[in-house]
UniProtKB/TrEMBL annotation:
This is XRE family transcriptional regulator. Keywords: Membrane, Transmembrane, Transmembrane helix. Residues 80-105, 147-218, 310-332 are annotated as: Disordered. Residues 314-332 have a biased composition (Low complexity). Signal peptide: none annotated. It holds the Pfam family HTH_25. It comes from Listeria kieliensis.
């Protein structure tokens, strides 16, 4: 640490500047600013730059650089000799081109060649681009015209031999028979597909219906038509409800409490055509059969619901479709 460095560092701190701030102001690398404060001038790029950096540092923190150099003359490296050497080096560099031109002859010709070399390269590049364009526009079109023969140049060979004609006639008959069989098979497949599509359309047109029967006491019956099976979903809103689901024979399918705001998992009646549902708290309970909500008695708290699947319609339609399909196949 030197007295010059201490003075500059104190001035910097007095202005509230960090080394990073000072680096932004002076554009001097931070490591050089640290070297000035520490008096470590050996890391500087040269004596001339040392004095220049100290001067910029001083001006940035409002310290008189002239007075600073006068007060600490012994600490600041002398740069006069370095300035003279730098000026001499510049003079030698300026004189070198003049000496080269003065020689004339070979060096002069070489310089002129390098002057026109970029122009030669540009001209060659332009010629290359023009060749590429010519090739793709004209040369390839000519190749296509040569490769494609005219219709007038094509010849058709005809074999007039009797044996060959007979063989062609037999082959034609075989092809006709194969085509007829294929057409018959395609017609049969198309008719079968048409019957299947009609069956699917008829089944799709049938909409499931739930008919409410009579209510006797707390028991109500319902009939479900146009459906293949019974699927139940029970939910509660406004309170808990107890649910019991059993078959017509009394076998238990589901038994549990459905909490307020929740619903049961899907209850599949499987192959059972009739199920019985006991609802413990009907006013807060919603019962859905195959996704459709059924109407409960409005005044009863505990209710017994009997759900019956009427599959007579679907069976008859299936039998009818099967019969029509069989008739079509027999007719074919």
């Amino acid at each position: 640490m030197t007295e010059l460095g201490d003075k500059l560092k104190a001035a910097r701190r007095e202005k509230g500047l960090s080394l990073d701030d000072l680096q932004q102001i002076t554009k001097i690398q931070k490591r050089y600013l640290v070297a000035i404060e520490e008096g470590n001038y050996s890391v500087m790029p040269g004596k001339f730059y040392t004095r220049a950096f100290i001067k910029q540092y001083a001006e940035a923190v409002d310290v008189d650089s002239t007075q600073l150099f006068a007060d600490f003359d012994s600490e600041v490296p002398e740069s006069q000799q370095e300035v003279v050497e730098q000026e001499q080096s510049r003079a030698r560099k300026k004189a070198t081109p003049l000496a080269t031109h003065s020689v004339g002859g070979q060096n002069s010709s070489r310089n002129r060649f390098f002057d026109i070399l970029p122009k030669i390269l540009i001209a060659l590049f332009i010629l290359f681009i023009l060749f590429i364009i010519w090739y793709f526009v004209f040369a390839r079109d000519n190749d296509k015209n040569v490769a494609t023969p005219n219709d007038s140049e094509q010849t058709v060979k005809v074999n007039d031999e009797t044996g060959s004609s007979t063989k062609k006639s037999d082959d034609a008959k075989k092809n006709d028979d194969s085509a007829a069989k294929k057409k018959a098979a395609d017609d049969k497949a198309a008719e079968k597909k048409k019957a299947e599509d009609k069956k699917k359309a008829d089944e799709k047109d049938k909409k499931m219906a739930i008919e409410k029967g009579q209510t006797s006491g707390n028991a109500t019956s319902y009939t479900v038509s146009n459906a293949d099976k019974l699927s139940l979903e029970i939910s509660a809103s406004g309170g808990d409800t107890w649910i019991g689901v059993s078959t017509a024979a009394g076998a238990n399918i589901y038994n549990g409490i459905v909490k307020d705001g929740s619903s049961s998992d899907e209850i599949d009646a499987k192959d059972n055509k009739t199920v019985s549902i006991v609802v413990g708290n009907a006013p807060v309970t919603t019962v859905k059969v195959n996704g459709e909500k059924i109407e409960l008695a409005p005044t009863l708290v505990k209710q017994v619901l009997t759900i019956k699947l009427d599959d007579s319609g679907s069976d008859s339609s299936s039998d009818s479709a099967s019969s029509s399909s069989s008739d079509g196949e027999n007719a074919q």
